[in-house]
Amino acid sequence: MTDQNAVLAQILVALQTLETNQSALAATVEGIQSRIETSSTVNQLKTQQLPRPTDSPSVDPKDLRQDTNGHILSSSPPPRSSIDSQRPSISLGEPVKSLPTQRRSSITSRIILTTYPGQSGIDPVPLTWGEADPQKRGPVVVSRHSKTIRKRNAIGAHGGSYSIYNALAVAAHHLDLEHKPDFTNTEPAVIIGPFPAWSDKRKIVAMDPLGHLAPWLYKDLMQPPNDLDIRPTIAVTKAHMKIPELEDSVRKGRLVPDGKICLNSTGELAVTKFAVEPVWYLPGVAERFGISEADLRRALFEHTGGSYPELITRNDIKVFLPPIGGLTVYCFGDPKAMSDPNVKLALRVHDECNGSDVFGSDICTCRPYLIFGIEEAVKMAQQGGSGVVIYFRKEGRALGEVTKYLVYNARKRGLDRASEYFKRTENIAGVKDMRFQALMPDILHWLGITKIDRMLSMSNMKHDAIVEQGIPIHERVEIPEDMVPEDSRVEIDAKIHAGYFTTGKVMTVEELNAVKGRAWEDIEH
Q1: Using an 8 Å Cβ cutoff, are 269 and 332 in contact?
Q2: For bias kind Polar residues, which ranges apply (predicted)?
Q3: What pairs with residue 270 in β-bridges?
C-alpha cells in the first residue's frame, strides 16, 4: 500500500508539473499571438491609413434629439464653431545628445518656466489630430526624457492624476528621470478597430485613438538616432472578476453560468478591460463646449494655479494631457461584438462613487445600479450580443469626495429632504454637477459603437450627450425598485424630478418635500 501511495504521489507531482508547464506554454503562445496581431495591425495602419470619417455609420444627431423619456424632438442641436486644424510646419531636426544615465530630479540646474514657438532648440514632432495616415498624424510626445524634452508636442504629463506621484518619485530620487519603459510582452490582449471615428477630429477629442498602439506604431522614432520616449495612453488586458453580489445573482437564477462569460456558480466573470488616460485635443474640446480655444486655455491655466504656462505661450501645441482621472471599459463577451451593428449591445456608463461602489454606503444607488449594469451586460453577451460597462473617475459628480461629504453633513444636519437635494450641493460647490458628459461619448466612438440597444442608465445628461454625438439609444432601462436602498430615495426621487428617465411617477415638489433621508443615529429607516 505504501508503494502504491508513493506511485500515486509521483503521478500527482507529474500531473501538477504538466499542468504548470501547460499554463506556461499557453501564456507564451498567447503572448506570441498578441505580438503577431499587434504587428499585423501596426503594418495595416502604416500601409492602409485609418478609415475616413465619411465612412462612419453613426446617425446625424439632429435625427436623434429626444426628451428624457425618449420622445423625438424636432429641434436641431446648436451649430458648432469650426476647429482650427492648422499645425506648425516643422521637422524632426537633429536629436538632442544623450546625457549620462543617473537619478536626477532635472535635466538642467536652471528652472525653465515655459517655452515658445520657434524658440531655439525647440522642435516638436509634427502632430496632426484627425489625420487618417498614422505616420502623418504622428505620436503624442509629452515626456521630459533628455532626448524627448525638446521634441514635445503635447502639454502636461503621462499618468493623468498619478502624474504628480511620478514627479514626487523623481524629486525623492526613487525614479531615474532617464528611465524608459520596456514594452516587451505588453501588447494589447485583444485588437479592435480601426474605426472611421479614429480619424474624425470632432468625434474623438478627449483620448488618443492610437494610444494603445503608440510604442509599436512609432517604434522607429523610439530607436536611435531619434531615441524618443513615446508611451501608450491606453492598455488592454483580460481578467476574471469576482463580486459578492454576483454569487447571489447565480443562486437566484438571474445569472446562469456558461463556462465562458459567467464561469461558475460563484458568479466569477471573464472580462476584457481597457484602461484609458485622458488626452485632450484642445480645439475639439473647446468646440464640444461651445467656447473658444483661447478661453479654454486661459481657464485651464489660471484655475490650475498657473501649473501649465505652455497653455498660454504655446498655441502651436494643440494637445494637453490633463491631471485628471481616466476611465476603464469592462467588456463582456467578444470585444469585436461591440462594433457589430447586427448584434445587440447593453451599456452602463458609470461615474465613480467610492463610498458606495467600494464600501457599500446606502445613501445613493451607485453600487446597486453598477451591479445591475454588470448583470445585464453579462446577460446580453450570453445571448450573443455585447455587454459593456464603462467606469469614469469622476468622484462626487467630479466635485470630489471632500465636497461630497460636506454636502452629506449639510443634508444630515438638516431635514434631508428630496426637494432640497440639489440645493445642498449648489450651496457648497456653486454647481450641482461638474461631470460634463459632453466628452464621455468619445470612448464609444473609439470602441466602434454606433448604436445602443439597452442603455442601463436613467441620466438625461448621459443620454443627451450620446445622442448628440450621433449614436442612437433604442431602450433606456432604470434601476429596479427592489435594488434601491431606502436611504437613497432622497437622491433618486430628486434626480427623477430633475429629468432622469423613468417609466414611473415623477413627484411634485410637494411630494418631494415629504421624502426624507435617515438620520445618522437611526438604526432602521
Answers
A1: yes
A2: 40-57
A3: 240
524: Cβ–Cβ under 8 A, 6 or more apart, which residues?
Answer: none
Checking DSSP bridges between strand 154-156 and strand 319-321, what pairing results, if any?
parallel
Backbone dihedral region for residue 487 (phi beyond 0: left; psi -120 to 50: alpha; all else: beta): alpha
In the structure grid, which three cell numbers stand for residue 79, read together?
451649430
pLDDT along the chain (525 residues), means of 10: 76 77 70 77 76 56 46 41 37 38 60 91 96 96 94 96 94 93 96 96 97 96 95 98 96 96 97 98 97 98 96 97 97 97 98 95 95 98 98 94 93 91 92 92 98 97 96 97 94 94 93 91 68
Catalytic residue, from 297, 367, 435, 454: name it. Answer: 435
> Which set of grid coordinates corresponds to residue 455?
442603455
Angle at 456 (CA atoms; ends 450, 457), nearest 5 degrees: 105
Can you tell me the distance from the alpha carbon of 44 to that of 22, in angstroms, rounded to the nearest whole number?
32
Q: Nearest 5°: phi and psi at 154?
A: -145, 155
Residue 247 C-alpha cell reads as 454569487
Distance CA 208, CA 453 (A): 26
Of 123, 433, 442, 464, the active-site residue reads: 433
The amino acid that residue 328 corresponds to is T
b vs e for 122-142, b when ≥16 Cβ sit within 10 Å of the residue's Cβ? bbbbbbebbbbebeebbbbbb
Residue 330 phi, psi (nearest 5): -115, 110
- Alpha carbon 30 to its chain centroid, in Å, reads 25
Q: What are phi and psi of 389, to 5 degrees?
A: -120, 125
